[in-house]
Amino acid sequence: MTTASDVRRAPDAALVRRPARVRVLWLLVSVLVLAALMVASVALGSRDVAWADVWAALGGADDTLEQAAVAKRIPRTLLAVLMGAALGLSGAVMQGVTRNPLADPGILGVNMGASLAVVTAVAFLGLTSPTAYIWVAMAGAAVSAVFVYTIGSLGRGGATPLKLALAGTATSVAFASLVSAVVLPRNDIAGSFKLWQIGGVGGASYERIGQVLPFLVVGIVVCLLSARGLNSLALGDELAAGLGERVAVIRAVAALGAVVLCGAATAVAGPIAFVGLVVPHACRLLVGIDHRWMLPFSALVGAALLTAADVVGRVVARPSDIEVGIVTALIGAPFFIHIVRRQKVREL
C-alpha cells in the first residue's frame, strides 16, 4: 500500500540514479580538472611563463614581464570560472523549468535580450555605471525570456522544444540586428562594444569581478535552492501539483535565478552562447537527472568549459586571442545540430 510519505518521496524515486560513489568520483574529477585548467590559464598565453614566475606572481610579485603577465591572467581566469559557472547553471535551470532539451540562454534569446538592453541604455540614456549595466541586462534578459516563451507557447501543443528553439533563434537574430543598428552609427561606443558583442573575458579586472560577484552569488543560491522543485516539475505539472508543489512559484523562482545569472554574465562578458546547452547534457550523463546533483555539477563543468575555451583561444592564435564566444560557438553549434536531429521527445 502506498503511503503519503511514499508519494512525497516520488520525485526522488522517479529519478534516474547513479551510485553515490560514482557521483563522488565525478565530483573529484571535475574539481581536479577545473583546478588544472585554472593553472593552465594562468601559465599559458602569448608569452611563455616559467613555473617560478607563476608562483612568484601568485605571491604578489610583478617585477618581470612574465610575472606581470601572470598577474593579469589571474583575474581573467577567475572571471572565466565565474562566467562559465553562471552560464552552465542557468542553462541547466532553464532546461529544467521548460523541460526543453534545447533550452540555453543563447538559443532562447535571453543573452541577446540582455545585450540589446545594455547597448540601448548606453547609447540613448548615457548609462556609465558598471553596476547599472548589470541591472539593465537582467531586465532585458527577463523581458526577452518572457517574450520568447510567450511566442513559443502559441498554437497547438504549447511550448514544445522545437517551437521554443525557433522562437528563441528568431528573436536572437532580430535583437542582434537591432544591436548592430544602435551601435554602428555611434562611433563613440562602437569600439568598446565590438569585442563585447562577441563575448569574452579578456578585459577582466578585480573591480569588475567585485561588481558582478554579489549578483552571481544571489543567482547561484536561488538556482541551487530550486533543485528539489525542478525534480518535481520533471514529473509533469499535474503530478507535481498533486504532490503539493506550487508549480507556478517553483517555475518563477527558478527562472528568476537563471535570468539573474544570464543578465549578470552578459553585462560583464557579453553574449556567450552554447555553454548552457552543452554543459547540462554532459552532466546528465555523469550524475543522472537529479537536479540536486546536476545543478552543482553544471556550475563546475561550465566553469571548466569556459576556462578551457579561453586557454584554447589564447594558445592557437598566438600572439593574438580568439574570444571565448567564438570558441564556444565552434563547440556548441555542431552539438546543437546533433541534439535537434537526435531528440524525438517533446520534453525532458
Summarize the structure.
It comes from Actinocorallia libanotica. The protein has 348 residues and is mainly α.
Comma- or semicolon-separated keywords:
mainly alpha; single chain; 76% helix; ABC transporter involved in vitamin B12 uptake, BtuC; 348 residues; globular; disordered N terminus; 16 helices
Task: Write the topology of this structure.
Elements: H1 4-8, H2 10-13, H3 20-43, H4 51-58, H5 65-98, H6 110-125, H7 130-153, H8 161-183, H9 187-198, H10 206-225, H11 227-233, H12 237-242, H13 247-269, H14 275-287, H15 291-315, H16 324-342
What does this structure look like?
This protein has 348 residues and is an all-alpha fold. The protein has one domain: ABC transporter involved in vitamin B12 uptake, BtuC (Orthogonal Bundle). It is built from 16 helices and no strands. α5 runs antiparallel to α13. It is globular, with a radius of gyration of 21 Å. It starts with a helix and ends in a 6-residue tail after the last helix. The N terminus is likely disordered. Keywords: Cell membrane, Membrane, Transmembrane, Transmembrane helix, Transport. InterPro entries: ABC_BtuC-like, ABC_transptr_permease_BtuC. It is found in: Cell membrane. This is Iron ABC transporter permease.
